[in-house]
Design a protein that fits this description.
The complex is a heterodimer of chains A (293) and B (377). With 293 residues, chain A is an alpha/beta fold. Chain A is built from nine helices and 14 strands. Chain A folds into two domains: 209 residues, 3-Layer(aba) Sandwich (Rossmann fold), CATH 3.40.50; 62 residues, Alpha-Beta Plaits, CATH 3.30.70. In chain A, the strands form three sheets. Chain A has a six-stranded mixed β-sheet with strand order 6-7-8-3-9-10, sandwiched between helices. In chain A, a hairpin with a 2-residue loop joins strand 9 and strand 10. In chain A, helix 3 packs across helix 4. Chain A is globular, with a radius of gyration of 20 Å. Chain B has 377 residues and is mainly α. Chain B has two domains: 242 residues, no CATH class; 113 residues, no CATH class. Helix content of chain B is 74%, strand content 4%. In chain B, helix 10 runs antiparallel to helix 11. The longest helix of chain B has 34 residues. Classes of the chains: A alpha/beta (293), B mainly alpha (377).
């Protein structure tokens, strides 16, 4: 079992902020947690990483109790940028993680190249923009090639290019076997990342997740839509090729992640992924009422 | 070790740390050159002191002369004692005049011998109920020090203006151990742990594969390393300045101490060694106590307030209590190491060390327990 959250309850003072959360993740996946402010998303993540004490229930990550600090060799938690030390450089932060996790220093160059922050890795964090800090947080979270990557609002402060870059990195990590558990307000980006979206309200996970609901129609544009269409059909995917929209399919019939993986494995370049139906945002509005976010 | 290096980077690479270290060096250098250019002033102070003695005796001589010419009825019975006082005052006046006139011409040995002769005469004068600003304690201390210097053949140094390496080191150490060390430690470590809570970076540390108690342990070691750097600055800087610009002096220079009411001596070397031990033990205690409060309160201001309150209570306890028992059981006894060393009445300078070390260990054990259960919101 990769993640097992069993009837987790947490209260602040006398108010229950988590009311019996249950979740099982048995194979690598991208799971999104969506909900309004105060719904308990960050509390759940903090409980999973033992930053907060559980009042009831239990959590195991990779079949180990979440209280065992050794799990952090394989579990990373991308938190908000307050955790960074302003007067240290990005390199200092990454070197520290390499030191405590016995990761060779050459990984620093690899990960900074991957995230796109090589040019400012030796600069002090206090001079970083919000986006640069997010890059560093991502680099810190993935330098150990984690099996589980927990992320709290990772897209905050990212410009569109960086957001796309982060999405690509996360999809690559997923393909490499990392389970990604992400909470975010950016419904559009989340929608593009996964349809395994869980909604959270008032400290409880709603029974329905987006993947259980009405389908969303996707359209994907690649560097060679004809060949990609043929490949997908050869692999029994129910897809259509449409003029101007590229390859389209319904989430009900075809998994976006599987399509992306197959195309990636065959070296197709994904130019864009769009969903025709509003997907997560539409459902979010239905569940939480417009304007409550 | 890896966490310690990271901790040290967080502390040592700050502008605050570098600025304070430079200020320490600048302050010591300023003090040395103040001493250097004040040699004539210090010499003048001795002359002023001798001059004051002469004035005192002259005033007393005029008084005796006047009173002897027209003795009032109420002192007729004391005439014999007044005559004795007048005679002793005349002798002391003569010696004090000699001291003043020979100050610039005589060798130091000659001057100290004459000073001792003068102290002897003043003592006799005071025994004869004569009035003099010097107390018996001051007379005894000064005479004993002069005798020691003569016996050891060590030239005297100006008390607060010496440029002899050992004496200047002692002067710097005296300033350092009188609350300065604690103030510096607080400046350096005030937010060493609380900042992690206040800014949220503790989340980063506790989501790393490291044992939680090592976080606090490494903060503690970081604090001790900072203290070590400061004490090195406080010893090496005056030593270097003294060697280059001052004179070598001698570490055997005597320092007067009071041992169960009796005047005794230790050398400057001994003073520097004992004061370093005491201030080190007390500083380590303060670092531990401050980290303990930081862990409990998690806010810099509250932790500082709690620490200062503890020091104040400690100071009051030190003021209100005395004796061997309190010296053994009061870990705050070393708050003023100067007193522990120079006045060893009913206690020895080292007595508070064991209890301080025990409290340090106990605080660490409590902190390990707390940090293992640490949950941060």
């Amino acid at each position: 079992m990769i993640i097992h959250v069993d009837n987790v309850k947490k209260k602040y003072k006398k108010e229950w902020v988590l009311k019996g959360i249950n979740m099982k993740v048995e194979e690598p996946n991208i799971i999104a947690l969506v909900g309004p402010n105060g719904s308990g998303k960050t509390t759940l993540l903090n409980c999973m990483t033992n930053i907060l004490k559980l009042d009831e229930g239990s959590i195991t990550l990779l079949d180990q109790p979440h209280t065992d600090t050794s799990i952090f060799k394989e579990v990373s938690y991308l938190q908000d940028n307050r955790i960074l030390y302003g007067h240290l450089t990005a390199y200092d932060h990454l070197k520290f993680i390499c030191d405590v996790q016995k990761i060779p220093y050459k990984k620093i160059k690899e990960v900074t190249d991957r995230v796109g922050m090589s040019s400012y890795v030796k600069r002090r964090v206090q001079n970083f923009s919000l986006g640069m800090k997010q890059h560093l947080l991502l680099a810190m979270a993935i330098i150990n090639q984690p099996k589980i990557l927990l992320m709290d609002e990772p897209l905050n402060g990212l410009d569109p290019t960086s957001a796309i870059n982060m999405r690509e990195i996360l999809l690559q990590l997923y393909e490499e076997g990392t389970t990604i558990f992400v909470s975010s307000h950016n419904l559009d980006e989340i929608d593009r990342l996964t349809h395994n979206i869980h909604f959270m309200k008032d400290g409880a996970l709603l029974k329905e997740s987006l993947k259980d609901m009405d389908s969303v129609t996707y359209s994907i544009k690649t560097n060679d839509d004809d060949q990609a269409n043929l490949l997908l059909k050869e692999n029994a995917f129910d897809v259509q090729l449409q003029k101007n929209r590229g390859i389209t399919f319904s989430e009900r019939d075809v998994s976006l992640q599987h399509v992306m993986k197959l195309l990636h494995d065959h070296d197709f370049t994904i130019i864009s992924v769009d969903n025709k139906v509003e997907g997560a945002e539409k459902r979010y509005r239905e569940l939480f009422e417009e304007g409550s976010v | 070790m890896r966490l310690l290096i990271f901790e040290l980077k967080k502390i040592l690479l700050t502008k605050k740390f570098i600025a304070i270290c430079l200020l320490i060096i600048a302050g010591i250098t300023f003090l040395f050159f103040r001493n250097y250019i004040s040699q004539d002033f210090a010499h003048g102070q001795i002359a002023a002191e001798y001059n004051e003695y002469v004035n005192v005796h002259e005033q007393r001589a005029n008084y005796y002369e006047a009173i002897m010419e027209n003795p009032s009825d109420d002192i007729l019975g004391d005439l014999e004692q007044l005559e004795e006082q007048q005679e002793l005052n005349e002798t002391a006046l003569e010696t004090s005049n000699q001291l003043l006139s020979q100050l610039d011409t005589s060798e130091w040995q000659e001057r100290l011998q004459l000073e001792n002769q003068y102290y002897q005469e003043v003592e006799e004068y005071k025994y004869a109920n004569g009035d003099h600003p010097l107390t018996f304690e001051e007379i005894n201390r000064s005479r004993a020090l002069n005798t020691k210097l003569l016996d050891e053949d060590i030239a005297p140094q100006y008390a607060n203006y010496s440029i002899a390496t050992p004496n200047f080191m002692m002067q710097v150490m005296q300033i350092f151990i009188t609350f300065t060390a604690i103030a510096l430690i607080l400046l350096f470590i005030a937010d060493i742990l609380t900042r992690e809570f206040e800014e949220g970076s503790i989340h980063f540390l506790i989501t790393q594969p490291i044992k939680r108690h090592t976080i606090v342990l490494n903060k503690f070691i970081g604090g001790v390393v900072i203290y070590a750097i400061v004490i090195l600055l406080v010893t090496i800087t005056p030593y270097t300045l003294g060697l280059i610009f001052g004179n070598p002096g001698t570490f055997s220079y005597p320092v007067v101490v009071e041992n169960n009411g009796v005047i005794d001596f230790i050398t400057i070397q001994h003073y520097l060694m004992t004061s370093t031990i005491l201030i080190t033990v007390f500083s380590v205690f303060c670092i531990t106590l401050y980290l303990f409060y930081s862990l409990i309160f998690r806010q810099t201001l509250i932790a500082l307030f709690a620490f200062m309150a503890t020091m104040l209570v400690g100071y009051l306890i030190n003021t209100l209590t005395a004796g061997t028992f309190w010296a053994w059981v009061n870990p705050l006894q070393n708050m003023l190491p100067e007193q522990m060393i120079l006045v060893q009445n009913s206690h020895e300078w080292y007595m508070a060390i064991p209890v301080t070390l025990v409290v340090i260990v106990v605080l660490h054990v409590v902190m390990v327990g707390r940090v293992r259960r640490l949950k941060v919101g």
